[in-house]
Amino acid sequence: MLFEAVAKYYEKLEGTSSRLAMIDVLSEMLKEADKDEIKKLVYMTQGVLAPPFEGVQVGIAEKFAEHAISIATGYEQAQVLQSYKKLGDLGLTAGEFAGKTKLRGLRRTKFEVTYVFDTILKIANTSGSGSQDMKIKMLVELLGASSPLEARYIMRFALGELRLGAGDATILEALSKAYTGDREFKVKLEGAYNMCGDLGKVADVLVRKGKEGIENFKVSLFNPIRPALAERLPTAEEILEKMKGKCSVESKYDGLRAQVHISKAKGRVEIFSRNLERLTPMFPEIAKAALKEVNAREAIFEGEAIAYNDATKEFRPFQETIQRKRKHGIEELSEQMPLHLFAFDLMYLDGVDYTNLPYEKRRRKLESIVEGDGTIRFSDMIIATTAKEIDKYFEQMVGNGLEGIVAKDLNSPYVAGARKFSWIKLKRSYKGELSDTVDLVIVGYYVGRGVRAEFGFGGLLTATYNEKTDIFETITRIGTGFTEANMKMFKELLDHHKSKKKPARVNAVVEPDFWVDPEFVVEVRADEITRSPMHTCGRDGGEEGYALRFPRIVSDGVRGDKKPEDATTTKEIIEMFGMQKRIRVADS
Ligand code: ATP
To answer: Ligand 1 atom 12: the closest Cα is on which residue?
Structure first.
């Protein structure tokens, strides 16, 4: 497939104002790709060069890009910069200069989409001495032979700023439409995606092996599984009722979730985060222990990694565990403050996919392959059949300084990538006001008035994620909690990401001063959830949506570890609203 055709589809996509129209455009485009192209086309459409866990960074520096445009078209770099300042988008600048190039002789070879992808991948992977010259040469070669439209998208892709606004769920739905004729098969595709965290791989299997390949999709070693997530309930009684009278109840450790993959034959261990990033270098003691303490040839299991003092049996606060998320000084840290892994689940063992087995079996097997007294321990657990037992265990855990408990259905399979009632969390914070924070997606911002005018920033319009419709629904405007430095940072960041019109996947009745592509997540605390006609969160055809009272921002800037689709969902807000009411009734 020619990149020229892909660029035309991308342009069409930018012009769409509804998610369904996006699916139509995407599915038309995906249909045109060959078997050997689909994987790369899907990555490109996601704006990445590989699935996130491979850690291949797309993203050249702006100065580098300006330099490449100038060489490729024969203009001074200062002229390129001037255009960039005016247009605010190096993609448009690259297009403008490609349209008036002084180096006509260089153009025009038509290239395939895979050629563009491979060249940008090569640019990303080239390092060492002389690499800058080589990289420039490759980018110049692409830009020099591009039409204005191609140059626009090549530049945005190379900068890591393609931002087509199509989330993973939208791409899956488009794949379903393109290769099965309707959107229904999306559920199965999502299931496969949850097993491997690799959209390119799912597309490749669909195109090569059809529906059957997707229906028989299995977990595989070194492909991270999207984690099972927990629902919330406010009381032990409700938990037990949902669990039909019997469940396991475990300590909820406040650390970092870690999914461990081991292959003894290869001597290889990989550890993945909740968001499928590769964390192996940050947890050397856990990686070492996984090879030593696990009695299996190959396994995938998971647990919570937490700083723990074995001598005093003391769990250290989250702030200490999170210090591991850095590049340097890890070895020293792992000696000063070693982490332990409190393992709780097993998903794969020696060639067998365990995800469909009931939790009780998975857990028992896990306990049979690990000693459990070294760096790898087991999460503490009891089997409860009365609410009293759950409450007692909960009080005991909170007394030990833990966050709360997670109850688990003993008969449930491992539900990858979904928040289901097979896991239910009960936290200290549910027993009071709405003190659990929420993670919201920025969809717009306001310019400052009064004192704020000087910063040009007066607050954010934020949204929840509706996973059923794959749409962002507004829930609150946030005007407080910002420091001066924060306001400056938001203004700069959001200016760069603002959208001329309401993004296709945003549903809103209020209008901010500027729309922003849904990309950034912030952590927010509020006093309570209320009903409001001003917001679309949970409106579902009715008059009133849900909103937050007295919202304030608590994260220092945006949360780098969450994608917009990882934000608090509309469904969670509705459940939290229900819990809030029940707690009030219980208190009065
Ligand atoms: P939270 O901020 O409450 O941890 P979350 O959205 O990150 O929320 P949830 O799925 O809602 O994650 O809650 C479960 C999380 O609790 C897991 O992701 C895991 O990191 C952590 N956890 C700690 N102890 C356990 C345990 N024994 N079993 C399962 N998860 C546990």
So the answer is: 229
Residues in the chain: 588
232 CA closest ligand 1 atom index: 11
Q: Is the CB of 428 under 6 A from ligand 1?
A: no
How many domains would you assign to the chain?
Answer: 3
Torsion sign over Cα 514, 518, 520, 522: positive
What CATH number has the domain bearing residue 267?
3.30.470.30
Q: Give the CA distances from residue 449 to residues 92, 454, 496, 505, in Å, rounded to whole numbers and listed in that order.
A: 31, 8, 21, 28
Nearest-CA residue for atom 29 of ligand 1: 406
Considering the domain boundaries, does residue 108 fall inside one? yes
In angstroms, the CA 177 to CA 128 distance is 44
What are the residue numbers of the active site? 252
Backbone phi, then psi, for 231, in 5-degree steps?
A: -85, 175
- What's the confidence (pLDDT) of residue 321? 87
Residue 345 alpha carbon to ligand 1 centre in Å: 12
Looking at the fold, whether 354 and 480 belong to one and the same domain comes out as: no
Confidence band for 414, pLDDT divided at 50, 70 and 90: very high
Whether residue 462 is contained in a domain is answered as yes
Across 386-400, 476-490, 502-516, least confident range:
476-490
What's the pLDDT at 433? 44
Helices 199-215 and 38-46, axial angle in degrees (round to 10): 130
Each residue of 534-577: pLDDT tens digit?
Answer: 999 999 877 899 999 999 998 878 887 788 999 999 999 998 89
Residue 298 placed within a domain: yes
Range 311-333 average pLDDT: 86
Confidence class for position 587, pLDDT limits 50, 70, 90: very low
Nearest CA to ligand 1 atom 5: 229
Among 159, 188, 209, the domain boundary falls at 159
Q: Could you tell me the CATH number of the domain that includes residue 444? A: 2.40.50.140
Mark whether 268 and 292 lie in a shared domain.
Answer: yes
User: Is the CB–ligand 1 distance for residue 252 below 6 Å?
Assistant: yes
Q: Find the domain containing 34 and state its range.
A: 3-159
Does the CB atom of residue 559 touch ligand 1 within 6 A?
no
Interval 358-407: pLDDT, tens: 999 999 999 999 999 999 999 999 999 999 999 999 999 988 888 899 99
Residue 197 lies in a domain: no
408 pocket-lining for ligand 1 (C-beta < 6 Å):
no
| Closest ligand 1 atom to Cα of 231 | 11
- Beta carbons of 153 and 10 less than 8 angstroms apart: yes
Please state the pTM of the whole predicted model: 0.88
CA–centroid distance, residue 245 to ligand 1 (Å): 22
Q: What is the 3-state secondary structure (H, E, C) of 52-95?
A: HHHCCCCCCCHHHHHHHHHHHHCCCHHHHHHHHHHHCCHHHHHH
Choosing from 398, 429, 460, the residue where a domain stops is: 429
